[in-house]
Amino acid sequence: MQSVKTGAGFMSTKMVTLWGGLLxxxxxxxxxxxxxxxxxxxxxxxxxxxxxxxxxxxxxxxxKQLGLSPYAGSVYHGSPLLLSLLGPFIGNRRDILLIIExxxxxxxxxxxxxxxxxxxxxxxxxxxxxxxxAHIHHxxxxxxxxxxxxxxxxxxxxxxxxxxxxGNTAALFYLLNPFTIAVCIGGSTSPIENMLTILALYGAIxxxxxxxxxxxxxxxxxxxxxxxxxxxxxCLLANGPDGPPSKLYKSPELVQAVHDRDGKCSxxxxxxxxxxxxxxxxxxxxxxxxxxxxxxxxxxxxxxxxAISWLCILGLCNFSLHEHASLHDMWSETYRFIxxxxxxxxxxxxxxxxxxxxxxxxxxxxxxxxxxxxVFMVMPLTIRLHHRPVFLAFTLTAISSMLKSYPSVGDAxxxxxxxxxxxxxxxxxxxxxxxxxxxFFTAIIGPVMxxxxxxxxxxxxxxxxxxxxxxxxxxxxxxVESSSTIIRYDRNLKKQSVKRSxxxx
Amino acid sequence: MAEPRRRLxxxxxxxxxxxxxxxxxxxxxxxxxxxxxxxxxxxxxxISENAxxxxxxxxxxxxxxxxxxxxxxxxxxxxVLKHADGYIAVQEWAVKHMxxxxxxxxxxxxxxxxxxxxxxxxxxxxxxxxxxxxNGTMEGIPGVNIVGIVRAxxxxxxxxxxxxTPFRVEGMLSTGDRLALGFGMALFELWGNSNWLAKxxxxxxxxxxxxxxxxxxxxxxxxxxxRFDLPKDWGFSDPSTQAxxxxxxxLDGETLLDFKRAGTIAAGLVLYVTSxxxxxxxxxxxxxxxxNGQMPNLDLINVVNSLAVWRQGLHMRVDTxxxxxxxxxxxxxGQFLEKIGQLAGKVRADWGFVLTASMYVEGLATLFxxxxxxxxxxxxxxxxxxxxxxxxxxxLEMMAGGDxxxxxxxxDLLTKFGRLIEGVMRSVNNLLEKFHQSFFLYxxxxxxxxxxxxxxxxxxxxxxxxxxxxxxxxxxxxxxTAVASDSLNQTESDSTDLFSATPGKPxxxxxxxxxxxxxxxxxxxxxVGSWQRAVVVVSVVQLxxxxxxxxxxxxxxxxxxxxxxxxxSSKAPPVMKFFTIPSxxxxxxxxxxxxxxLTMVSFLPTPGKGDxxxxxxxxxxxxxxxxxxxxxxxxxxxxxxxLVLVPMSLCACPLTNIWGKSADEHKGSKSIQFRxxxxxxxxxNIIGSPPVLLASAMYxxxxxxxxxxxxSKFWEWTELLWCWGSALYPYILVVHLPCSILCIxxxxx
Lengths: 505, 749
Fold this sequence. Notes:
The structure holds two protein chains of two kinds.
Chain A: H1 10-34, H2 37-41, H3 54-65, H4 80-90, H5 104-141, H6 153-159, H7 166-176, H8 178-185, H9 190-206, H10 209-223, H11 230-239, H12 247-250, H13 252-264, H14 277-289, H15 292-321, H16 327-333, H17 335-340, H18 351-357, H19 363-385, H20 389-403, H21 409-421, H22 432-456, H23 461-504
Helix pairs in contact in A: 1-5, 1-7, 3-4, 5-7, 5-9, 7-21, 8-21, 9-10, 9-11, 9-21, 10-15, 11-15, 11-20, 13-23, 19-20, 20-21, 20-23, 22-23
Chain B: H1 8-18, H2 20-41, E1 43-44, H3 63-82, H4 86-100, E2 104-110, E3 143-150, E4 159-167, E5 169-170, E6 172-173, H5 175-192, E7 200-207, H6 212-224, H7 239-247, E8 264-274, E9 283-287, H8 298-311, E10 315-317, H9 328-347, H10 357-376, H11 383-387, E11 392-399, H12 407-430, E12 442-446, E13 449-452, H13 453-489, H14 508-514, H15 521-549, H16 552-568, H17 581-602, H18 611-633, H19 635-651, H20 656-659, H21 672-688, H22 690-700, H23 707-723, H24 728-748
């Protein structure tokens, strides 16, 4: 899809590709769903986790209709709001394992998830566009052009979608990713969770504080793990989209060089940079954040809006649960269920295997250790990557997807989509071929090993868990490599800009 | 400029890449030789589960029981001949005798098998039990299994052993079926009166009017996953049948149709009696291959083998290629190995191995038959149905040395077999756990010789090792050529390396080698471009192959519906002059595949120069993953596939490299030798390409009389592989086909 580059019908081909891709993705989903792959995917543990399962949601809805608590019997572990939202659609859906023919109610819930995916993709697209223009903007501030081919920055800005079309790539990649498709039609609530996470990040990038706060609160309410995304969202609101480290603008030699250059060759740079570069640097720092006081104000606003959203959510939950259950039941069946890893059935993660073995009196300790792995990562990563909040969000999502207690491929779909937003900075990613083949390999061999273990009886749990470890290793390699690529990219940026400013003086 | 410090690992990696051609050739040759050496590496079987204790008790089955068996066989035959419906006669006979033993007995009606390719279900659910049509009636006549259960006097009834005797009534029972029924009844009576049983014994008289497998699979499904949507009256329109089925209604409302269970099934034995093929001695033939090459635990075969050979003096056989044993070249190879064995024994006593030429050839023939059976993925008998529920089962085919001439001969034969089966039953009865001690993954090279997974993985590993190596070489090559071509027209390269801190180098080995080279934006761009195009090409071909693979049900339904319309208007469609229905389906499938391939190819981006390197690297990756995954599903398929696919994908290179001008090669390495190698590789490719393979398949399985007949044969094979869920089918269509298409793409680029 990327092979179409320059040319007269640049914009139109881009749009055709985008909308064609959207249509194609919907068509693929519809076709697979009509062929009844939901019954096949609905029982794959890679697709459905205890927290996201639609079958469990149907059970919760049934209980609710009977006038019982939806959390009775510890079957349903999702949000009451999801129950109210999706319950009517899948109310008649009995056991999806027995009913092979898709019913009309299946189709309704199918469209809800397709819509969630489409919205997520479109949000990703506009996120990509603003990231891209920010990127171009920063480069021009540093006096660097994108390629050797001289193009005026003004033109690049006016085109909006830019040269690489990061937004389009990310949207199409997100939609056509087999993981996303599998989760969308496989009867899991992950598409909605992913959409909410993307919504929060989008709100932050667009500078809409209430939207960011609402998205964050909703995503956290539904999935818990997006809670750690508060930091990147706050960074986005305070510092603006991804850019080079801010100290790059403060480095004395660069400032000096730019200052010198302005006197000599300001006409060299395009329309956008007619103004003196020093001013630009200042304005770039100011037009987003102004001062540290304003930064804190924005963060405060975010906190406030999140708190308001949370209050609304809790109120709605309380309303939706009526008198059948209390909010306390909700906490203990959702967050507590996630945190204490009560369901030890095999999944893609690393928890179940360990906690089936561990003695009961060690359990709390190891649960703490396992969960703190995620929390401990947040601080150092924030310090190192705070100037690239979207990439930070990708890293945190990937880490939590690797270390969460009930992961599914839906989480991988989310972080791969976010990763695609940084595709330009990550173009020098090492081990790409290895990672690509690794993902293919685990996607195929995982189910095979599960089959060997559960159905054929010739293998055992170690076969399957070994594949989980391979998957976790792949994710680790991906995270580590992409982080080091970004850091190296920043270092290069600095080197280049200093060199360029020296040559131009 | 100072010599950069040499680091060990990158240096080793570069050495590996430098000599990769030789290494891959050696690996492939070693893999091939190891396959031929497997019979020499086979170990003797041994019983590893101590609880089995074969032969620890004296069997009580004797001549009297054997005479009983023959009497009952005659009885059932006469009943069948008298009754209008032979199956009901057998049912009445069995129920009468079982009730006399006060054993539980019931009838289990089951639906006829579904028409092949009538659904998209592949691997998803059992294919052999039909589904109900819309109005809740069954198509065709249902079969009826008769099941009897002897409850173990000393146990809680949570474990069971299953004995299956398939039978078929075609006016009368065949001699083998008659004897099998009588034999089964004699055993059942023996066990019904015994006090040593610790597991319940279930005897299934499998109604094999469709096939023994269908009947057993239907019974097992009802046993493990009962269905609630089965019809009430089973469409037994015949009132006398109805009357009989509901006649046995007892006081507590039980009917003969009530399904009864007996705990988890520990093992299954399927018994056949055949008149033999004129062998010299009474022998017993064991078939064990389940679906997709799944084997029962080796201990089960060991028990049968040790009891048959050491106790009853029976000859035991497994499936083998008889005509391979006369092959002269194999005999030479065997003699050669024999010499080597003797020689090695002379050098050091414990190195030598005793392997006579005839033993080697016999072992190889049996091994190849074993590989063939596993690779086809079709179970070799009704025991395959058990494997779907993780139950170990074997088919025992009892062959008389001569004909079943006199009653005395029959009694003699049945005594021997009866004592054998009783011994096996006693062993299984002793089991405390599931079969788990011995091997599940093995190949048999003789009834008492096996090759375990640890040994047979070696040749596959050697074969597969070459593929990632080749991919690594190609990756480094593609980066190097890009760098070389760009460093010429890049004079001031270091000022632009902003976006490619390290360029898009896609392989671990390469990264190390290329880290120090001055790279630049354009390099990265060109190599990324060629990689992008390659990814598009490979994924398009792969997509096409997957679509082709799921196409047969559509074709089948389409043709069927067209035929239905035409049969309604009672006029044969014009195409039927040329085609039969199966050949028409096959023809349509092939046409669709070819047309869609051509359309897809025409949409591919125009290949750049040197694109084939990236395509080939991806091809090697895909082939490795495909073969590796396949080795977990069905080893035999993977081994056979690797023998063909590995040289093909390694040797693929553009034809222009052979006789074209060597424009892009500045090394001048286009010697005659090099070109000869390439030519040889191309030959391998052409031999492995689909048309040639198809032609050879046509030669072997096809009907040489006409091409329609061959097409029909192909379609029948497709149906067979599809409805048995054989791993061979996805291998051919999703792994081999796209890889060979990509090879051709590389050849022509």
